[in-house]
Every structure is written in structure tokens, then in C-alpha cells.
TrEMBL record:
Entry GO MF terms: serine-type peptidase activity
Gene field: sppA
Source species, domain of life: Bacteria
Listed GO CC annotations: membrane
NCBIfam families found in the cross-reference section: SppA_67K (TIGR00705), SppA_dom (TIGR00706)
Name by which UniProt lists this protein: Signal peptide peptidase SppA
UniProt family annotation: Belongs to the peptidase S49 family.
Compartments where found: Membrane
Membrane-crossing segments per the record: 7-34
A single GO BP: signal peptide processing
Keyword list, A-Z: Hydrolase, Membrane, Protease, Serine protease, Transmembrane, Transmembrane helix
């Protein structure tokens, strides 16, 4: 009895201590948040806005202060929103306290269209008469594309620039699946719909290679054109430098070739910036980052008080696949509800649907398309494409009045596919796991993962795919004022760059999200308005607690898989959704 009481008392004390520690942790956490939020942001005169861009750049800042707390094992990767970056650059143009922008990136985790929008914003900033100054010790190709727009491009005397051209690499799983006894049964429409190729081929098909070479060539030419205009180098000269692989060239050679203006060490750069901002040599350089400057109060034009609104609705990630712990994924019901509410809100004069999605569920795409179409019947709807708006991502844009894209956007991929794995051999022969089944009807187990489809079932699913494709091209034809035959000719699952898409009438004009907002205001004849972002951001604490396990799992997988993590994501993305898919052939990583 005495031992029982001791054990019980010890257990109670342990529970109380655990609760106390947990409560203490919460108190400390929220105290830190409150202290951060209560600190006023003071921007001094002669300050530089610094764009280091060392965090992943996402479409929209989540405004969640909990993400800034470094909690071992559960803190996710820190992120910066493109919306904040663009807003800060725009604000700095007319802020007398900001003398210029200091670019100091190295590796940049962002898509090319995202960087294109930032680059254009920096070029516009220079029109104000203020300067953009770039310094680096090691620039990736993406980083160099961005910094090349600066008035002065400075490299460390022992620095490097990774400039070698674009490369897109694919992994194929056919042999690996055969070895473990898994057969992937494929149903698709579109000779260019290459999403299923990794499961059925050992290398790219001729059609896939053709489309990849075409859109990559278009994007590379755009990057060269932008760099050429900024650095006063011909495209031929830039291609020669890329062929020579600047990664392993000396810094003085890179300067002699015109890629940079001068070579300086960091302390010399600081002195140079002090001189440009009229700061005394013995005083500290004044810089402010995007996160802090986004919170800094500035004089406004009164638009923040305007009743009329332009709604920017964000659709980011795979359609109909929910979130995977990384905070991405489009819930068709949520986005549809958001569009519907914006349609019914008389104070919202126009909608900008901001899309960064490779597609996903065909049904989910149809659900969103329907609400976009209904909204377009009552007010202007502009589709603004980010890094990628392909397949289902294009499907949901098709009903908009105007479709805009950056020049480096990847779009198109109008096609449909389905895949059904057959793991019967793996389970039966490799693992010794057998199955038995009882059906009430002949095809009750049609989507079983342990047997092959019959000829009848394959024909049934192929007809289903064909019907889905016919619906898809019909939606596009209706929205783009084309015939089905015209859409089919540029469809077939083919991926296009924005340049090709403009030629093929899949988009209307080039421009970023801010250009789309201005166009929406013009189309709705709205002069005084404020911009709102939708869907509304969920409660930070609730979302943080809900995603703790997912974030920790994601960090563990990234740590264990390393460079193979993108392959894991691709396999997971393609296998977790049943039914037919309107999705980009693969997650395109251009390096």
C-alpha cells in the first residue's frame, strides 16, 4: 500500500511538473511575441533597405509571429512573402528616410517568375533616382539574374558567380518499380502529358524532350535579355560566358568580362555604402530588412481608408491535395467559398486570382473554375500567374476576363491522366503477403492496388479520361474564345513558357501581381481602393499547433533524404490523389 501511494504521488507530481513546464513555455513564448509586436519600428534618416533574401520566398507572408521563434525540432523553414518584398520596394521609392536598396543575396529559394517580379520592382525603384547596390561573395545563377539589375554590382575579390545556363533533370522509376514488383497502370490523354513517364519509361519521350527544350530555351533567352540590358553585354557574349562555366573562373576575369563592376571586400563595401548615404566613417551603416520595414509606418495616400476593395485571392500548391506539413496546397472548397464570398461582397469591385499551382485533382479544378466563372459574370476577374500555372492551375484561370503572366512563367499542360499502381507482385512474391477478396459485382474492386485492370476496366477509365479532357478543352475554348480544335492543337498536355503561351492566345499580356491589381482597378473603374488578401489568415496559434507534427516530420525527411527529398515529394504528390488529374508533368526545378 505504501509503495502504491508513493508511485501515485510521484505520478501526480510528474504530471503537475510537466504541466507547469508546458505553461511556463507558453508564457515565455507569448511574452516574446508580445514584446516583439510592441517594439516600434524606427526608420532613421539615411537608411538602406536591405534585401538579403536568405529565406524561402513564398507568395504571401503569413504574418505569424510564432514562425520567428526558433524552437528545436519543430520550427519550420523561415519564409519571406513576395507581397512584403514588393510592398517594401514600392514604399521605399517615396520614403525620404530610405536612400537606396542594398542587395546581398547568395542562394535564393524562389522561382524564376518570382525573381522576375522582384527584378522589375527594383528597376522601377531606380526610376525614383535612388540607387540599388549589390554585393556578394558567391552568387547562384538565380541570384546573379537578380543582382544584375543593380546600379553597381560588386563581387568579393575571391568570390564566384555560378553562371552556366539552365538544366532540367528528371528521375525515372520504371526499373526500380520493376525490381520491387510494382506495376503502374497508366491512362492519359495528351502525347505531351509526361507526368506518367517516370513510371513507364527509362528516359524522356521525344515529345517531352521537345517541349522541355522549347520552354527552357524561351526562359533562358528571357534571362539573357534582361541581363544583357542591365550589364550592356550582348546575348552572344553571355552565352559564351555560360559555356565557359563562370563558376570556376577568377573574380578578376569576371570583372574584365563585364559581369561585375568592381571587386571589394565587405569592409570596403560598407565604407562605400556609408559614402553613398552620407554616413560618417566612424558611424554604423544604417540598414533595415524587409520584415521590419514592412511594419514601419509611412505617410499614405488615404487608400487604406477607402471603402472599395480589390481582392487578391491566393491559390498556391497542388489542387485538392490539402496541406503536407509545409503549409502548401489548395483546398477547392476553401478557395471556392472565398471566391463566392468575394463575388457577393459589393465593396469588392474586382478580383485578382493569384495562381502558383501545377494543378492536381480534375474535380477540384472544376469546382474552382465554376466559382471563377460565376464571379466573372458580376465583376472583373484577372488571373495572375506566378512561377507556374499549369494544367489544373490553368483550368481555374480559364474563366477569367484577362490572364496575365510573367515572361518566365510556366503554363499550359492542358491534359489529363490517371495512374493506378498494381503492387500485387510486391505483396505476394516479394513479401509473402496474400489477399483474398469477396465482390458483390464483377468490378467491385476496380481500383484495387493488388491486381491489374481488365481490358474492360482500362477501356472504361480511358473513356473517363477522354471525357474529362473534352471538358477541359471546352472550358478553355469558352474562356479564351477559341474552338475546341484550336485548344486541342496547343493542348495534348504540352507545357509552354509565357512567351509561347502569348503566341498561342493562352494568356493576354505580361505582368506581375501588382500589374494585375492595377488592371483590375482600371477594369472596374475604381480610383480609390484598398487591396485585401484572401483567404483570411487562420489563427496563428491554432495553425502552429496543428502543423507541429507535420513540420517536424518534414524537417526529418529533408534531413534523411537530402537531395532526394524532391523525388519523395513528387512520388507522394502523384500517388496520394485518386481519380483523374490535371497536373503539370512533374515538378520543374530549373537550375
Amino acid at each position: 500500500m505504501k509503495d502504491f501511494l508513493k508511485f501515485t504521488l510521484a505520478s501526480v507530481i510528474g504530471v503537475l511538473l510537466a504541466g507547469f513546464v508546458g505553461m511556463l513555455l507558453l508564457i515565455v513564448t507569448f511574452s516574446a511575441i508580445l514584446s516583439l509586436s510592441e517594439q516600434p519600428v524606427d526608420v532613421k534618416d539615411k537608411t538602406l533597405l536591405m534585401l538579403k533574401l536568405d529565406h524561402k520566398i513564398v507568395e504571401r507572408s503569413d504574418k505569424n509571429p510564432l514562425n520567428d521563434l526558433e524552437l528545436p525540432g519543430i520550427s519550420g523553414p523561415r519564409q519571406t512573402g513576395l507581397d512584403d518584398i514588393l510592398a517594401c520596394i514600392e514604399k521605399a521609392k517615396t520614403d525620404d528616410r530610405i536612400r537606396g536598396i542594398y542587395l546581398n543575396p547568395s542562394e535564393i529559394d524562389a522561382g524564376l517568375a518570382t525573381l522576375e517580379e522582384i527584378r522589375h520592382a527594383l528597376a522601377d525603384f531606380k526610376e525614383s533616382g535612388k540607387f540599388v547596390y549589390a554585393y556578394g561573395e558567391a552568387w547562384s545563377q538565380k541570384a546573379f539574374y537578380l543582382v544584375s539589375v543593380a546600379d553597381k554590382v560588386v563581387l568579393n575579390p575571391k568570390g564566384m558567380i555560378d553562371f552556366k545556363g539552365l538544366s532540367a533533370q528528371r528521375s525515372f522509376f520504371k526499373k526500380a518499380l520493376e525490381k520491387v514488383g510494382v506495376e503502374v497502370q497508366v491512362i492519359r490523354h495528351g502525347k505531351f502529358k509526361a507526368a506518367v513517364e517516370p513510371f513507364m519509361l527509362e528516359k524522356m519521350s521525344p515529345e517531352n524532350r521537345l517541349q522541355t527544350e522549347t520552354y527552357m530555351g524561351s526562359i533562358w533567352n528571357q534571362l539573357l535579355a534582361d541581363i544583357s540590358a542591365s550589364r550592356q553585354l550582348s546575348i552572344d557574349e553571355l552565352n559564351d560566358l555560360a559555356d565557359g562555366v563562370t563558376t570556376f573562373q577568377r573574380a578578376d576575369y569576371l570583372m574584365a568580362q563585364g559581369l561585375v563592376d568592381t571587386l571589394l571586400y565587405k569592409d570596403e563595401v560598407i565604407n562605400d555604402l556609408k559614402e553613398l548615404t552620407s554616413i560618417r566613417e566612424n558611424s554604423d551603416l544604417r540598414v533595415i530588412d524587409v520584415k521590419k520595414y514592412a511594419q514601419a509606418p509611412v505617410k499614405t495616400d488615404g487608400k487604406g481608408l477607402a471603402r472599395d476593395k480589390i481582392a487578391v485571392i491566393y491559390a498556391n500548391g497542388d489542387i485538392g491535395m490539402g496541406t503536407d506539413g509545409s503549409g502548401t496546397g489548395i483546398d477547392p472548397e476553401e478557395i471556392s467559398r472565398t471566391i463566392r464570398e468575394a463575388r457577393r461582397d459589393s465593396s469588392i469591385k474586382a478580383i485578382v486570382l493569384r495562381i502558383n499551382s501545377p494543378g492536381g485533382s480534375a474535380y477540384g479544378s472544376e469546382v474552382i473554375w465554376r466559382e471563377v466563372k460565376l464571379a466573372a459574370e458580376t465583376k472583373p476577374v484577372i488571373a495572375s500567374m506566378s512561377d507556374v500555372a499549369a494544367s489544373g492551375g490553368y483550368y481555374i484561370a480559364a474563366a477569367a476576363h484577362t490572364i496575365m503572366a510573367d515572361r518566365t512563367t510556366i503554363t499550359g499542360s492542358i491534359g489529363i491522366f490517371g495512374l493506378i499502381p498494381n503492387a500485387g507482385e510486391l505483396l505476394n512474391d516479394k513479401l509473402g503477403i496474400t489477399q483474398d477478396v469477396v465482390n458483390t459485382n464483377e468490378h467491385s474492386d476496380i481500383l484495387s492496388l493488388t491486381r491489374k485492370l481488365t481490358d474492360f476496366e482500362l477501356e472504361l477509365l480511358q473513356n473517363y479520361i477522354e471525357d474529362g479532357y473534352d471538358t477541359f478543352i471546352g472550358r478553355v475554348a469558352e474562356g479564351r474564345k477559341m474552338t475546341k480544335e484550336e485548344v486541342d492543337a496547343i493542348g495534348q498536355g504540352r507545357v509552354w513558357s509565357a512567351e509561347n503561351a502569348l503566341d498561342n492566345r493562352l494568356i493576354d499580356l505580361y505582368g506581375g501581381v501588382n500589374d494585375a491589381i492595377k488592371l483590375a482597378a482600371d477594369m472596374s473603374e475604381t480610383e480609390r481602393y484598398r487591396v485585401i488578401q484572401l483567404p483570411k489568415i487562420k489563427d496563428p496559434l491554432e495553425e502552429w499547433l496543428k502543423e507541429l507534427s507535420g513540420t517536424a516530420r518534414m524537417r526529418l525527411l529533408k534531413s534523411e533524404l537530402g537531395d532526394h527529398y524532391p523525388i519523395y515529394k513528387q512520388l507522394k504528390s502523384l500517388t496520394r490523389t485518386r481519380g483523374i488529374l490535371t497536373r503539370l508533368p512533374y515538378d520543374i526545378q530549373i537550375n
